[in-house]
Amino acid sequence: MRLLSANLQAFLVVYEKSSVSAAAVELGVGQTAITQRIRSLENEWGVSLFTRSRKGMKVTPEGQALLEYCLRANELEGQT
Fold this sequence. Notes:
The protein has 80 residues and is mainly α. The protein is 68% helix and 10% strand.
């Protein structure tokens, strides 16, 4: 059982890869699906999670807080 939802998994992989397209490949879904998942999280919480640029995706301070949660959840998942 996964502790993170599909949206949170997408967020974590985008952070790790700094790229929506690389995250899409990693997760085996289209880029549009990844973008929708990130936007869904941003809309749910009313914050931007990434700063988008040609150089890639960089996590915002709000995104950093979510990242720490995701990393802890993955750690817990590995322990179970």
